[in-house]
Amino acid sequence: MAAAGANAAEPSETYLSRISGKFGNGIINMATGVGEIPKGMYVESNTQGAAAGIPMGFFKGMFNMMGRTGMGAVEMLTFFIPTKPMVNPAFIWENFSRDTTYNTNWEMYNTK
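The chain above was modelled as a monomer; its predicted structure follows.
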C-alpha cells in the first residue's frame, strides 16, 4: 500500500511542465551567461595553475558566455518543442568546477 501511494505521489512530466521548464531554463541561461567568465578562469586555474589559467580561462569563459547566452535565447524561442537542455550542465551553478559543454543535436524527451 505504501508503494502504491509513493508512485501516485510522483509528479508526471507533462508537455506543459516540459515547455515551461525549457522557457525558464532559457531565461536563466541568458541572465547567467556572464558567469561563464569567472567559471572559466576557476576551472582553468585548477587544471593549469593561476598564471596560465586566468588568462586562458577568461577567453574560454567569453566563448562559453556567448554559447550559454545564445543557447538560452534558442531555448526561449523554441520552448514549444520539448527538448532536453542543450547546455551541460543545464545551469551554471550546477557543478561549477566542470567545463561547460554543448549538445550538437536536439534530443527529444522520451514520450513513453
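The two ends are 25 Å apart (CA to CA).
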